[in-house]
Amino acid sequence: MYCSCLGSVAVGNFQASSQGIYLTFVVPDVDDCHAKAQAMNVKILQPPTDEFYGQRRMLLVDPNGVLIDISALIAS
What we know:
By secondary structure, the protein is an alpha+beta fold. It contains two helices and four strands, in the order H-E-H-E-E-E.
């Protein structure tokens, strides 16, 4: 499929390049979410970690393969 407003660019190529989604939730307590995820046997890719940009975050994968980023601001 071609869109006349895009000239010779195939619209389908943009749709085909998507590899999934990355979903972020900002929560009050990442460690609490980590404990709950462990209790539910969720696949955890990165345990809670303090990042240089002022957030504490963890990464997990939901049963559908969606990458989930759970983060919270680090109190200063």
